[in-house]
Design a protein that fits this description.
The complex is a heterodimer.
Chain A: H1 3-6, E1 25-34, E2 37-47, E3 52-56, H2 63-71, E4 78-83, E5 86-87, E6 98-101, H3 113-123, H4 128-141, H5 157-169, E7 175-179, H6 187-204, E8 207-212, H7 215-221, E9 224-229, E10 232-237, H8 239-244, H9 249-254, E11 259-267, E12 272-275, E13 283-285, E14 293-299, E15 305-307, E16 316-327, E17 331-338, E18 343-349, E19 364-369, E20 375-377
Parallel strand pairs in A: 3-8, 3-9, 6-7, 7-8
Antiparallel strand pairs in A: 1-2, 1-4, 4-5, 9-10, 11-12, 11-14, 12-13, 14-20, 15-19, 16-17, 16-19, 17-18
Chain B: H1 2-32, E1 35-36, E2 43-44, H2 53-58, H3 63-70, H4 72-105, H5 111-119, H6 126-137, H7 142-149, H8 163-188, H9 191-199, H10 204-215, H11 217-232, H12 236-241, H13 249-259, H14 263-294
Antiparallel strand pairs in B: 1-2
Helix pairs in contact in B: 1-14, 3-14, 4-8, 4-11, 8-11, 9-10, 11-14, 13-14
Classes of the chains: A alpha+beta, B mainly alpha.
Chain lengths: 379, 295
């Protein structure tokens, strides 16, 4: 997976790699405390124009606080937030060039769909004809033509979500904040809407910052993902970077499925060798940096091949018994128990019919992977 | 079987309505069509089993209603009651809305206490509480003493036995009926609606006018009716705090019943009062239904 087919952005869209590029938003040593509780802990972050930036983390990690500081509903205890080089602190939320789409949508129940979308425009004293034109444009953008006159309680959840999006985009904000925008939708609708969101983001050229706890959603829509925990940024990278090169076991574990083995690393000719358990062969891997001593070896289940016969051409081969099989239709996850009791998860595509599967429960199998399949992590 | 059970379930409330509302109303209505008589009870005809029901019905007429329409006192009393009820409802709204709003915005752990404080006056007799206002509002009362002590006025204000005292009494007595329904709608209001309004360019004040106020409309309407309906027929407050020129239909009703012992005319006054009240009661019901449909 690369960032190009993950998000609908041009292949060369990577302003964070360009040192000359000025960030649209900059957090400089921002700390936010609520009483004794530190919600955001000395955080630095740059977000660039036209980015679709995802804040990802478990509940209580500070991602919503971060977003509310951008909207102006919270002010940093320490540090500064710059928008387009300008300090945001003295600007009240109603004067900011940001708009927010609320998790509850916060549609005004006494106003029609069209009036909800027009609400922000009317506050700016724009001529009525221009407001009507803009509302029409927004309604067309989110394909709600025949619902313009309805009240929010007369439309479905998915339609309400679009109204909320149209309303927050109507004022053409420099920055759109989306707080768990798809959380209330069912899975199928959520997946469709993710692609719509990306489409709309690309069409309007607005910078999006999305808060989500759904890692799949973050991976799908975002140009970059920030994984947060306890008010700190753990890793900020493209979805592919986060998935393939997590910088810690926390990130590796939070995003997707992973096997984590604890061991000791030592330099070898090809890279390094990790001895991790009595009676098990050492793992040959690329270590990248000069890691040594106690390390964690993280490897994704889909990077491990399961076979009935012992492969000869792989640098790493482990032997075990099939302990459990999770059949998911398109893929199966095999839980393989090694002789030392360690369970390793391996995944393979079900490209044959189920009845022709070559191994089943309690069969002896071989697990194999290349020396570049896993990552070695210090913590 | 199912049918039977359903009937058994809805029967008791209808039975209550029949016994506690419809039957008394029919009795009052019957008296209003009767004639005054120096007897016990003080009206005629009364039901005589020997002569039968048709004889009784044949003696009833609309004489009392015609009398009411001929004497302008009654019309003035109805009109004056309406005026006092409308003004005091409006005043109660002015006092009650900010209280409800402050309660809804108070910290969670304060709300039960505040709610308690609003309901607390109900624990004392209504009569005693209204009577206490005499001590506050009279010329030697606490209010005048205080105002004179701080030098704001040199002569005591005449408040007691005027319409102002009646307004004060009604606002004080019915305030909880205004506060509670408004509080109930404001408390349910999602704070993110306000934030969304501010995010879209409203100041805190304009967000209040454009979002909070329109959304609290059902509570405001409910509160206004809950104050207006009893205030219209109010007797105790104008009797205790109002003056001789405070004309309210409740007082007229009392005088007809107990001073004149003219039960038929008093009943006719009561029937017309009820007819006047039915309109706002129906409107109130409509509002409630609409509110439920909206949710």
């Amino acid at each position: 997976m690369t960032s190009t087919d993950a998000a609908a952005v041009p292949a060369d869209f990577a302003p964070w790699e360009n040192a000359d590029e000025k960030p649209l938003i900059e957090f400089q040593n921002v700390t936010k405390r609520f009483g004794d509780f530190t919600a955001i802990d000395n955080l630095n972050l740059q977000i660039y124009e036209r980015e679709f930036f995802a804040l990802l983390g478990p509940s209580g990690c500070g991602k919503t606080t971060l977003m509310r500081m951008l909207a102006g509903f919270e002010t940093p205890t320490e540090g500064t937030i710059l928008l387009g080089g300008q300090d945001m602190a003295p600007i009240p939320p109603n004067k900011r060039a940001t708009n927010m789409m609320f998790q509850s949508y916060a549609l005004f129940p006494h106003l029609s769909v069209a009036d909800n979308i027009a609400f922000g425009l009317k506050r700016d004293g724009i001529p009525k004809a221009d407001i009507d034109a803009r509302v029409d444009e927004m309604i067309r953008l989110v394909q709600l033509g025949q619902f313009a006159k309805r009240k929010p309680h007369q439309i479905s959840g998915g339609q309400r979500q679009r109204v909320a999006l149209a309303r927050s985009l109507a004022k053409a904000p420099k920055l759109l904040l989306l707080d768990e925008p798809l959380g209330a939708l069912d899975k199928k609708l959520r997946q469709e809407t993710q692609f719509e969101l990306m489409d709309i983001q690309e069409k309007t050229g607005t910078t999006f910052v999305i808060v989500t706890h759904d890692q799949e959603e973050a991976m799908t829509v975002a140009s970059r993902v920030a994984v947060m925990d306890h008010g700190k940024l753990i890793q900020v990278d493209t979805p592919a970077g986060i998935y393939e090169n997590p910088n810690s076991t926390y990130v590796a574990d939070f995003i997707g499925d992973v096997n984590i083995l604890e061991g000791h690393a030592a330099k070898s000719d090809a890279g390094c060798q990790i001895t991790w358990a009595e009676g098990q062969p050492a793992i040959n891997s690329n270590c990248g940096t000069d890691l040594s001593g106690k390390v964690h070896f993280a490897i994704r289940p889909e990077k491990i091949t399961v076979s009935a016969d012992k492969p000869t051409d792989k640098p790493n081969v482990l032997q075990g018994k099939v302990h459990d099989i999770a059949y998911l239709g398109n893929i199966s996850t095999y839980h393989v128990r090694l002789s030392n009791g360690q369970i390793i998860k391996a995944q393979s595509a079900n490209n044959r019919r189920l009845s022709r599967r070559s191994f089943t429960w309690e069969d002896d199998v071989y697990l194999s992977f290349t020396d570049t399949a896993g990552v070695v992590l210090a913590e | 079987m199912n049918m039977l059970r359903r009937t058994a379930l809805i029967l008791p409330p209808y039975l209550w309505l029949l016994m506690l509302f419809l039957v008394p109303f029919l009795i009052v209505f019957k008296i209003s069509l009767s004639d005054i008589e120096l007897a016990i009870p003080p009206y005629t005809p009364t039901y005589d089993p020997e002569k039968g029901i048709w004889d009784l019905l044949s003696q009833l007429d609309f004489e009392n209603f015609i009398f009411l329409s001929e004497d302008s006192l009654y019309f003035k009393a109805y009109l004056s009651s309406l005026k006092i009820a409308i003004i005091s409802t409006f005043l109660t709204l002015l006092v009650g809305f900010p209280i409800a709003w402050a309660m809804a915005r108070a910290a969670d752990h304060w709300r039960p206490t505040l709610m308690m404080l609003v309901i607390l006056p109900f624990w004392t007799s209504f009569l005693i509480r209204v009577y206490a206002w005499k001590g506050i509002l009279s010329q030697e009362g606490y209010l005048n003493q205080m105002l004179m002590n701080i030098g704001l006025i040199s002569d005591p204000l005449v408040i007691l036995n005027t319409n102002i005292a009646v307004y004060i009494g009604i606002v004080y007595t019915y305030l909880p009926f205004m506060v509670l329904p408004i509080y109930a709608t404001l408390e349910k209001l999602d704070e993110s609606l306000n934030e969304a309004a501010v995010d879209l360019g409203c100041t805190r004040t304009s967000a209040f006018w454009l979002v909070t106020l329109p959304l609290s409309k059902p509570g405001v309407i409910a509160g206004c009716f809950l104050v207006f309906i009893p205030a219209l027929g109010e007797f105790v407050i104008p009797e205790l705090l109002g003056g001789s020129n405070t004309l309210m239909i409740g007082k007229v009703l009392y005088q007809e019943f107990f001073s004149n012992r003219d039960w038929p005319v008093a009943s006719a006054v009561a029937v017309i009062l009820l007819l006047i009240l039915i309109i706002p009661i129906i409107l109130f019901q409509k509002n409630q239904e609409k509110q439920e449909a909206g949710q």
